[in-house]
Batch of 4 targets.
Target 1
Amino acid sequence: MEVLRANDDVRRRATQARQAGETIGLVPTMGFLHAGHRALIERARAENGRVAVSVFVNPTQFGPTEDFARYPRDEDRDLALCQEAGVDWVYAPSVEELYPHGQPGTLVTPPEGLTTSLCGEFRPGHFTGVATVVAKLFALWGPDRAYFGLKDFQQTAVLRRMAADLCFPVALVLAPTIRETDGLALSSRNIYLDPAERQAALAIPRALQAGWEQARVAGSRPSAVLEAAARHLTGMQVQYLSLVDRDSLEPATDLGRPAVLAIAAYSGKTRLIDNVALDGPAPLALAASAQEGVA
Ligand code: AMP
């Protein structure tokens, strides 16, 4: 495994791989890797000749009052996990390497319809930062496939659209959310939670589970799904609880079309997000099987 810091080295390695007829799978991350990232890496490993993992805490996707400076970082541990998972290249550039002219530089702005709801409403500029950095990674690596987690559901919608609009010849592979056995979605930010906050955070997967079950009751409407979920969140500071159309991200008006129930809520000072596709597997049932998959 090689650790690359310079964009020129990335281009060299990517060109060599292509000349050798190997496909490249790219897993973009902000590091502090956990079993959710690892599942993406393992999938990339299984599906490509070469696997690149980027580890970059991207300043342009954090708002001025957000946690960029204190976002958890542990490069040694990340490198060990990547090595063990059979990664070929870890790309861990400095901020100056990716943004040599400072910020903001040239930006990739996703269409408004995908960024006004859910996290977009509360994190202005966030998805522009995400789309911009991922576009740069695509331009540098030219991956055949890029791997993203459905834990960040709105991000996957934004990036699918970005790749299509900017004509990147890359297949986006979207992978299910990996959870702890008690249902909490893995997140680098879980490290911020003390034991009581972590316990309180379990209300989120329970709310998703309740909404998912309510959607299975004959004749259920979106309002009933939202009410069933909301009952579990009474003790929490909820930023949003929304049921949206999977593709347009607009509020779901009936349950006849694929819909996603999504939550952002604070446990203590930590903002957590999670979601479930109502036509997919139950979030709490998934927890057990996902654990098996990454054990
Ligand atoms: P991050 O490092 O938080 O930017 O995440 C990097 C990638 O890992 C993104 O595509 C995330 O959606 C994905 N990811 C984060 N947490 C999970 C999880 N619990 N299960 C699956 N994928 C995840």
Note: The first helix runs from residue 7 to 19.
Target 2
Amino acid sequence: MFILLLGAPGSGKGTQGKILAERLRLPKITTGDILRAAVTAGTPLGREARKFMDDGKLVPDAVILSLIKEELAKPEAQRGAVLDGFPRTAAQAELVDRTLAERGQRLNSILLLDVPEEELVRRLLARAAQESRSDDTAEAVKTRLQVYQRDTAPLIAHFAQRGIVHRVLGTGAVNQIATEIQRVIGR
Ligand code: B4P
């Protein structure tokens, strides 16, 4: 089973993805975490990604597509996974669709976490105060929200045509949201 968590920055993808992966015993692939680890390790991928991440921009598809390919090819991702943070662009969506189709698989459920913009900003700036993530600055958060609307939100219509998009209210207690997600996907 392949489940995609979609939503604006700060909508709880990382938070819910972790719970869902544990409950369904599926591996979780999180491009944001992989990129942040690469930045910390100072690898060529990290050095390239950092130029974009700190400003709240998407890391270019030219860099991300091979990363996605590599992750989906791993043995642990052959039977299912929770995809957190990708696909985020049309080209990434096409790659995921094509890779799964070649294996006779498909995305089964897409969970769209719905959170009002004021709450997104509040969460990200609250995290900035605690964790000092380099892209949680007010300026970068503004860019991330704009980039989400421009590049990622259009994917909702693309996937909705297949009838696999489930909109879930992403405000309230974390556990309640997780339970609602499981109810919606019937697992
Ligand atoms: P991501 O790591 O994916 O970060 P994000 O979209 O901002 O969501 P995040 O996971 O941080 O927020 P969450 O909702 O979990 O991407 C970061 C950057 O990496 C991107 O800007 C881009 O540069 C790059 N990148 C990653 N993937 C890419 C791709 N495929 N292509 C190109 N570039 C890519 O949590 C936010 C906060 O809310 C947390 O503090 C959490 O504790 C809190 N929270 C969660 N649920 C809550 C609830 N119910 N109530 C209150 N607070 C809650």
Note: The chain has a mean pLDDT of 96.
Target 3
Amino acid sequence: MNTSRFRTFVQEMTRLVQSAGDDEARLLEEGKKLLSALVSHDDWLPEEFARPHPDHYQQYLLHCDPLERFSVVSFVWGPGQTTPVHDHTVWGMVGMIRGAERCREYDFQGPGRPLALAHEHLLEPGQVDLVSPRIGDVHQVSNAHSDRPSVSIHVYGANIGAVARHVYVPETGDVKPFVSGYSNTALPNIWDRSVEARRHLVA
Ligand code: FE2
């Protein structure tokens, strides 16, 4: 398990939010490179944070910045599972690490008006999708595989599980508030560096 890969990502994202502040364009441009590098390797995500649920997708919190400037989540899709059409209200990056996702992006045209499907594409390992209220924030994400799980790593500009967001009925334009929460109660321990430290002990 290459824990240092994720620890380094968390450190670099922390430096980025610290220096970029509210500059969302810079956050997404530089964050996309960091996330793309992270999801180009599938050797660091502990198995318990990649475990699907038979009935619905899972959203495991992997890290939350102490000042809640960003959070990192693993999304785990069982075969054929899908999200409702939803928004985020903050910037977000979706990095594919295992399997594939189908992303449908919608234009919200006001309450009570049907949503227009703007774009549909497939996301494959190493690729990163971007969302935000500025560049397009309403989408639906599904496992592109009907016979195996898919996993993606998401980074958001807030403690996303506690953000007041919305789900949409695309046919009618009906909007409902929701708060996603998380599927896990314990986070991965990426800070046990004792093996490395012991190497430097004098016998
Ligand atoms: Fe989303």
Note: Helices lie at 3-20, 24-39, 194-198.
Target 4
Amino acid sequence: MATAEQYRNQASSLSYRNQAFIGGKYVPAASGETFDCVSPIDGAVLTSVASCDKEDVDAAVKAARAAFESGVWSEMDPRDRKQALLRFAAAIADHREELALLETLDMGKPITFAQSVDIDGVVSTVQWYAEAIDKIYDEIAPTGRDAIGMITREPLGVVATVVPWNFPLLMGAWKFGPALAAGNSIIMKPAEQSPLSALRLAEIAAEAGIPDGVFNVVPGFGEKAGQALGLHMDVDMVAFTGSTEVGKYFLKYAADSNMKHISLECGGKTPNIVFNDCKDLDAAAMGSGMGVFFNTGQVCVASTRLLVQEDIHDEFVEKVKKVAETMQPGDPLDPATLMGSMVDVDQMERVKSYIEIGEKEGASLVQGGKQVRQNTGGAYVEPTIFDKVDNSMRIAQEEIFGPVLSTITFRDEEEAVRIANDTIYGLQACLWTDDLNRAHKVARRLKAGTVNVNDTDGGDITVPFGGYKQSGIGRDKSLHAYDKYTQLKTTYIKLS
Ligand code: NAD
């Protein structure tokens, strides 16, 4: 890896793509409007980005539809589409450092993780779906001998992906990977806080041979570009990742327009249960700390509610505090930094306000709680730990999306499960135990799309990811996600 100094030099010579990418070309917003793209590392304006609106969305949908109907991608032989996507994945890998730098500058995550988690994750996602393309078979139904019932998957058509800023490209890749593999044309709407990597990626896609109109990017605000995609009569699906509040808007948009397919990956409030029979409390403390402070807590599955069994409470909280001490915010461009900045000043202020709420609610602030590195002009908050939290408090119920841990004590398994499930969310739950029976029994009772046992971050591209309850509808990753971007056609042939 390069040094912080080298990354700073690379950053100063970067040229940013700041226009929409529609039909294979960069174009300004039809209105000519732009918005400033501000780095949370130091408050610097990186560039001004096209602020797309309905007219730009119309143009992108037209380009995506024309490409889809032409068959240039949707009807390409599976083995050729596979090769094109493998070339795309290889091209992304070739631009690993540049794309990671864009993520770091744009949203403040440490450069080390931007490379190893974000960009490497994008590459492996695109590769995985590319490799799947020519291995997925359709079906013949078990009809009687007088008929053949063929069940075939077809691409949906124009798929919009509306994504958040915490893993700007990776959240997109979990959607455009399978959507492209299935033969759809896509329109990506990155979050207004982090548009730069998606805009650059569009060009990389074109250079790798993804046909014009198949991969479009419309940067802009949610209430404009996002809403226009949601309400568009010729968008067949919106695959959304973001807050539960905005996810619900998309259900309304679909109802008010063309009943488009909607998949939602929304918020979470992960319970992380540590039982007293867990032998390796150091590993559990490391997992608990990383689980909540990684990516500055801006993670939908962040294990924000630490449920500790009462007899190990004191010892365990001390261990987690030590992990937090090693994760103090630093320069995101320094490869040694484990925690960077918040995505922007608004998010930092939101986190600070929740820290105040926690204190007012009577929780005990035992670590952190302050804004730091003010002299940089950036948005940095210390890893923060509350103890003596009651699960009914707002800091235990609401998604803070920052480095704030709420510690809750429980007596026994029954109480742990009750508290864990007492939330509107159900994205992930974690538990630490050395008792195999307990692991299985408790995992079954936790209402979450993913249950991690003796980990807070388990799972890979082979397993589905998504939420129970108000954490969403549908799943990303795995072949279940591939199916989401297809519709089933029955062709029933009568044999005489
Ligand atoms: P957000 O909901 O504010 O924004 C997400 C996207 O929706 C952005 O592109 C935004 O521009 C767009 N948007 C905002 N308002 C809109 C509107 N009125 N109409 C249409 N589009 C609109 O979320 P965020 O602040 O970018 O990200 C944080 C949220 O994302 C958290 O709640 C987090 O839990 C969630 N998230 C979930 C997952 C998951 O897989 N479940 C992953 C990452 C983040």
Note: Residues 4-266+471-490 form a domain with the Aldehyde Dehydrogenase; Chain A, domain 1 fold (CATH 3.40.605.10).
